[in-house]
Amino acid sequence: MLTPVLIAPQRMAQPVLAHGASAPAGAEIPTPMESLVLATHPEQPPLGPAVSIPAAAELGIASSIVSGIGGVIGRAISGWLAGVRFISFGTIYKLEQAITKVKEAIHKPLDQLPVPIIDRPFVIVPGWTTETKAFQPLVEHLTRNSSNGGQCFYVQQGAFYTMDANGDLQAVAAGAVPKDAKVFEMIFSDNRQAPDKNVVEMRANFDAIKAATAWDKFDVQGYSMGGINTRLYIDQGGDAVNRFLMLGTPNRGVHFANLARDVFEKDVRWAAAFGKLQSTDLDALTWLQPEDQSAPLADLNSRWPQQKTKVVTLTVGTDVMPTPSRDNLLGITYGDGLIDADSLNLPNSHTIVLHNAMQHGLLNDDETVQHLRAVYFGWGLPMTAVDPFPEGDDEYIQMLPPRAPATP
């Protein structure tokens, strides 16, 4: 409780009340803090008759305590909300992925399709946190029955590897890569690093593939952030890309990055642990934020007109399921569960949004995606909608950019 202190008018006007001075006879001796507060305003006019006011020190301390408690509570609530938003999104994403995996296990979409004949090397560029095994269904489909070189060659920092039956990588001498090898997958030294670091490794990897295959240009699929990695490579003068497919690439950023950064900035450790986030993710998340909040992504997008003159490009995604968004009160739009459909498109570019496709993490295995991929890259299929793939994709085939014959 605050205790009133009687202060005579002259006490407010006399600087002798500063700490260490004597007080008039009979006056209550102020505390050091009270004296200090009073001494800061020694020239105020008299207040008139004696008045009763709460002790300044007690007022200040109480105010500070209330303010401090309010700040702590406010930060706690803000952090809790950030964590709940992030975990709610993550739970929905994992549920969507689990449902899609069940459908894939039953349907086995790639098993229903003929193995294409690849005419020039095809290189897969992975996205942020993408594990090598994520592309195994596609890799096994492309190399089935010893097709297209019979196996995938993994390239990391300019060195080649194959994968054994246990999923372990085995080193291969560059000279041992057969000339008819057509399927390659890049592996970054850290699958959580940002595009500006990945692009350095991409140069070494593309140069190694050139030397091993005698091809100067390759057809490239950039999956998720792998599309941004590849665009940066092209933007910085990289010349190894022939046809370029961006699959589920957040060209305009993704709201997930905002949710993840919010968890970091508010130090919500339980939410970060749930999402397996690491402090080293911040650089990549900066690239993945919506373009009006991401300086590096906005800078890259500002030069899109120059980038698209160097290669033929196609962006493919889907709007099949609820996806986080910052653009409405519900915080939900439609996309592939992670990348909303509006983030795919770049100005004056070929973009196909599928209305019936698999979830983000399984887009590579979708049969319609494989249909488009095969026709777009010209893998031994006619450039019409009449081919051995499942029906229903005709409208998408008509949207593909024209293709010139491949030459080494």
List the helices and strands and how they pair.
Layout: E1 4-7, H1 9-13, H2 32-39, E2 51-54, H3 56-107, E3 122-125, H4 136-142, E4 153-156, E5 159-163, E6 169-172, E7 183-186, H5 195-213, E8 218-223, H6 225-235, E9 241-247, H7 255-265, H8 269-274, H9 282-288, H10 295-302, H11 304-307, E10 312-318, E11 321-324, E12 332-335, E13 351-354, H12 367-377, H13 394-397
Parallel strand pairs: 3-7, 3-8, 4-7, 8-9, 9-10, 10-13
Antiparallel strand pairs: 1-2, 4-5, 5-6, 11-12
Helix pairs in contact: 3-7, 5-6, 7-9
Task: Supply database-style keywords.
408 residues, alpha/beta, Rossmann fold, 2 domains, nine-stranded mixed sheet, two-stranded antiparallel sheet, 13 helices, 38% helix, globular, disordered N terminus
How would you sum up this structure in a few lines?
This protein is α/β, with parallel strands linked by helices and 408 residues long. Helices cover 38% and strands 15% of the residues. The chain has 13 helices and 13 strands.
Describe the fold and architecture:
By secondary structure, the chain is an alpha/beta fold. The chain folds into 2 domains: 4-54, no CATH class; 83-397, Alpha/Beta hydrolase fold, catalytic domain (Rossmann fold). Helices cover 38% and strands 15% of the residues. The protein has 13 helices and 13 strands. It has helices at residues 9-13, 32-39, 56-107, 136-142, 195-213, 225-235, 255-265, 269-274, 282-288, 295-302, 304-307, 367-377, 394-397; strands spanning 4-7, 51-54, 122-125, 153-156, 159-163, 169-172, 183-186, 218-223, 241-247, 312-318, 321-324, 332-335, 351-354. The strands form 3 sheets. Strands 6-5-4-7-3-8-9-10-13 form a 9-stranded mixed β-sheet, with helices on both faces. Strands 1-2 form a two-stranded antiparallel sheet. It has a two-stranded antiparallel sheet with strand order 11-12. The longest helix has 52 residues, at 56-107. The termini are far apart.
